[in-house]
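Self-study notes.
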Amino acid sequence: MTAKQFITAVAVSAVTAVGSVWGYGQYEQITSYHPQTPSIFKLANFVEDAVTGPTVDFEKAATKAAPAVVHIKVTSKPKQVAQRPNTQANPFDDFFGDMFGERGQPQRLTPQRRGSGSGVSISADGYIVTNNHVIDGADEITVTLENKRDFKAKLVGKDPSTDLAVLKIEAKGLPFLTFANSDNVRLGQWVLAVGYPLGLETTVTSGIVSAKSRSLGINSRQSTTPVESFIQTDAAVNPGNSGGALVNADGDVIGINSAIASPTGSYAGYAYAIPANLVKKVVADIIQYGSAKRAYLGVMFGNEKLSEEERKQNNIKEGDGVFVMDVAKGSAAEQAGVQKGDFITKVNGAPVSTGTEMVEKIASLRPGDKVALTYTRNGAERTGTASLKGDAGTYASVKEQVVEKLGASFENIDRSKAAQLGISSGVVVKGLGTGILAEQTRIREGFIITKVNNQKVNSVDELKASLKNAGNSAIISGVYPQQPQREYQYGVNDLNSIE
């Protein structure tokens, strides 16, 4: 059992019309849960320990934060959606939309859907930040303040890569929260989660920061360029908390609650919040430009979740910092002097030890911003400065392992067979095993790949070339021999880690 299979990362908005909790692509209905009642002896010990432990003034933070956290209710009108063959219908897809779409399939009419989540007021004149997955696919958005006043909200803009969205309501003199510097967040510090879980009124829970710079892979379900560097906490967060505030003891926002890791879909483990520094930058971009302005450093690095064998296959060396697998031509990294095989140890003076930490630092900047890099080569420390770019750039050497990661063998379709099916050419998926195709898509053996990122592929060699040039993500299109008139599209991610 892999780590991905053991922990299911789920969106923490409530789909009230469904009555169950649904994850991105993986879902599980909650049937019953009977926690074991602790003995009086154990409970008494807990209370005694708690009383004698350190004290924190939660009341001050809760009093400040609660009035500025709002309830968001969304409605989706009845719509025609594709019915996937031989799969169970997923109501999460119905409400929030099919991320990539599978064209030409039988259609069915979904009923009106209602859902709810949370949001944080960030200005006195009505700007509100929430999660993209809370409002995505909604036809109507209503914001309810703590004092029960209702407002129709306008969507200012959204950024699926970070799972953030900005709303605007016509109001003045609203209570609002300010962002703290999330770089100063420390493991073990007390935090409060504020939101509207499970359809309840304003709810405040407490916990500690248990980890930083966590990556779950959950944003890859709604974006081909996901950015993840979550703050992990054990504060109780449930469906409906999405978009709510994670605040420090001063009541300032250190993160926007976004996901939970749980075997059931409700609180049973850890919650994850988007760090405030990243939120602040994305929100400012959306308000000013209508969308987030993504900056790229121009390096390829290994995912920290790779196994030891996979690291050896990709020639990823061990050392302090982020190992550089490749550098894009003309990129900021190349301008700063970084080369393939170096270890990046600092970004603008801030230490980085994982790719996730590095992505967070770069994602809080904009194209054109100057970035100072510290890196090591053969044990010697070097420094350089360059301007960030607005695209990932092109790489001179992308490994053959990109295709191997798909976990399948391929062969060119026979010309006569292609003519019979009414297609010009394609690549047949054979010997489907463990890998990206099996883990991220519903592709079955016999599927004929006809396009990658809407570009035709006529042979296995062209498939390899297309995937090499696709970067970290791609959309694979194709048909099944039984239904050649219907085109299916599947999104795949983590082909390479590129920043």
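Second protein, same conventions, sequence then structure:
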Amino acid sequence: MIVNVVNLKNETVGQVELPDLIYNVEMRPHLVHEVVTAQLHSRRAGTACTKTRAEVAFSNRKPFRQKGTGRARGGTRRSPVWRHGGTIFGPKPRDFSWRPSAQVRRSALKIVLSAKLQDKQLVVLDDFLVPEAKTKTFAEGLKGLGIKKAVVVTPGLNENLERSSRNISDSKVLRVEGLNCYDLLNHTHLVVLKESLAGIEARLMK
């Protein structure tokens, strides 16, 4: 599949061939759902915690005598049926994360990349030069491409570009190794630097 390579003025400066094994695969939404669900589960803190009747700070003294009061008998203030008593089956700290297999993760990423290309939301950029870390420079670059909500994929560390994008809430800069389904689906466009294509191919062609 042949795709145009553009510059920051959205002018075609060349072409590049994208492998069908990555950018033209069968749509299987259930795999994408599995991977995105796993990502969101892994983000959960899992720190919710309640006290059981064994952990509530009350004495072991019987609150009132057994008979003669007309009330139901009570043996402890820690009982879950009492106010400020322990909690039955309440949440405890736990790890919600789970990880799909590497094959499923790769397949899901290929599906999302193929969908972006089919929907004409994938842009191959020759280079994104940012002399210094300025939000304005990054915003003007996206404006020149005619896009807003975008993920920009770089081949490696590009400190100026990454710092320039931090103040723009609807865009993000990711390195090849950080490319993931959730961020691609959460942004309208995908901007891939030409040098990043080799890294994506090496990561997914296994």
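Instructor comment on the second fold: Helices lie at 20-23, 29-42, 102-118, 135-145, 159-164, 181-186, 196-204.
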